[in-house]
Design brief:
Length: 518
């Protein structure tokens, strides 16, 4: 046992030493393998780095080459542009030099002309003084020969010149009128006829219906109600008078406000169809109809502006445009008239190279004052202009509204167009109607204006007042005086009468000689 322990003690250091040497050998072997591996990795890394370096150098060289090419190209283009600029500048310099030479020549020519003009002016002054002396000597000689004083001679000469001037004035008026007609009539007729053809209205003049047909006469009693309470409630709610007379099957609505009259008409028709007629239901129906009419007015105004291409218009003006639907003048519907004037103004403005949307705006709003109602102050033109100014319309539009009946000074061409197209639309055949009394008065006024001139034998208004024929005394008026009289009568009619379209004045001077052969 002790021997084994002794051997164990002896072998233990040997084993430890042997293990230590074995560990050292293994470590050195691993270290050598690691160093070999590291060396191999370093070699591969160096190779990869050299490869990347070569690739980077090649890429840099390629990019440098491309940039050089781009730079050279830009340089060439810049050089070309500079050469072009140089050529243009050289041409401009040549042109400037030529212009300078021309200006120098013109200055010299003007200097020469001014010196010549001064010499001629001096000569003219000398001639003028000589002429004054000669005239003075001639006047003295004439006074001695005629045995007349200076005042008497001047009076005699003025009388003769006045007669000659009347004749020359008649000749000049006839000549100028003929020239004006020859140059302007064809163009004006073509322009206006084109505009009218393109805007030829297919509608007829509408009237606001103020009478309502009843299904039977018993309905009159129901409309009146017990002790008249229904009719009083209706008149109070609508502001329109209801006239119930002996005419069978008809009642009449009377009122100045066309919109309220339309509300009353529709309300009455609804009540008749419904059959329930009493004060509470009447108020309900009238309020409902008022809302419907207001909606129709608003939609009509918007639709009209949209169709004409008029934008950025104030909502109140749009509402007033819609109200024109229920307004008539001489039987002509005002909304249709305003649309027609707007289209005519747009076409004529286009032919004259003017602002077409502005012209249409002026035409649509020219009669906007008629939609304001009886509360307006002044004429519809003045009231409409004030309203347009209040809603920030352009000065051209305001002046066109104010001046289309010559109630304000004309400040733009659009005012002239508004006046002309308003007359064209109103004078269109079938556009307007007038009462028999006004028609007869206009014919009588035409004839009285014509007969007020000296030398007129008789005058006749024909063609519904669109022409007046004047017979003059042949022994009192010659042909040249008759031409001047025709012009004067036309101007007098323009100043005193209002009429649609135009009036043709025809002056007839006739001399007849009759003999009988027996």
């Amino acid at each position: 046992m002790q021997l084994f322990q002794l051997l164990a003690y002896l072998l233990l250091p040997v084993c430890l030493a042997l293990g230590y040497f074995i560990c050292i050998l293994v470590y050195k072997k691993k270290q050598a393998a690691s160093e070999k591996k590291i060396k191999h990795l370093l070699e591969e890394s160096q190779q990869a780095a050299e490869k990347i370096k070569k690739e980077a150098e090649l890429a840099a060289k390629a990019e440098l080459y491309q940039r050089r090419e781009a730079f050279e190209k830009e340089t060439q283009e810049t050089k070309m542009e500079l050469r072009l600029h140089e050529k243009r500048l050289s041409k401009r310099e040549d042109n400037l030099e030529r212009k300078m030479e021309l200006l120098t020549k013109k200055e010299r020519y003007i200097d020469t002309l001014s010196s010549n003009f001064a010499l001629k002016e001096k000569k003219v002054d000398e001639k003028k003084s000589e002429l004054e002396k000669l005239i003075e000597e001639e006047n003295k000689a004439l006074l001695k020969i005629s045995n007349l004083s200076r005042e008497e001679a001047e009076k005699l000469l003025l009388n003769r010149l006045e007669k000659e001037l009347d004749i020359k004035c008649s000749e000049l008026i006839s000549k100028k009128i003929a020239e004006a007609k020859e140059n302007a009539e064809q163009t004006a007729v073509s322009l206006i006829s084109t505009a009218i053809q393109r805007c030829a209205a297919t509608h007829t003049a509408e009237n606001i219906v103020s009478s309502i047909e009843l299904p039977n006469n018993e309905m009159k009693g129901r409309i009146i109600g017990r002790e008249g309470r229904n009719i009083r409630a209706f008149e109070k709610a609508t502001g329109i008078d209801v006239i119930v007379d002996d005419t069978p099957g008809v009642i009449v609505l009377s009122g100045f406000d066309s919109v309220r009259r339309e509300i009353a008409r529709q309300s009455m028709e609804k009540l008749i169809l419904d059959g329930r007629i009493h004060p509470a239901h009447i108020e309900e129906i009238v309020k409902e109809t008022e809302k419907e009419i207001e909606q129709v007015i608003q939609e009509t105004g918007k639709q009209t502006c949209f169709e004409l291409g008029i934008h950025n218009i104030h909502p109140e003006l749009i509402k007033l445009v819609g109200r024109l639907k229920y307004r008539t003048s001489y039987g002509q519907n005002q909304l249709q008239h305003s649309i027609e004037v707007a289209n005519l103004m747009g076409i004529i403005a286009g032919e004259l190279k003017l602002d077409v949307p502005l012209a249409k705006r002026c035409g649509l709003l020219h009669d906007i004052g008629k939609a304001i109602g009886p509360e307006m102050e002044g004429t519809h033109a003045v009231a409409g202009a004030d309203l347009a100014k209040r809603y920030d319309e352009r000065p051209e539009v305001v002046n066109a509204i104010a001046g289309h009946h010559e109630e304000a000074p004309v400040e733009s061409i659009y005012t002239v167009l508004a006046s002309a197209t308003d007359a064209i639309s109103a004078g269109r055949p079938g556009a307007r109607r007038e009462t028999l009394e006004k028609y007869i008065k206009r014919l009588e006024k035409l004839e009285s204006i014509a007969t007020s001139f000296s030398g007129v034998e008789s005058a006749y208004a024909i063609q519904a007042g669109r022409e007046v024929r004047v017979m003059v005394c042949p022994d009192k008026t010659n042909d040249k005086a008759a031409a001047k009289m025709c012009y004067d009568i036309a101007r007098e009619i323009e100043g005193q009468l209002e009429y649609p379209g135009e009036v043709v004045v025809t002056v007839i001077r006739e001399t007849r000689f009759v003999e009988r052969a027996k």
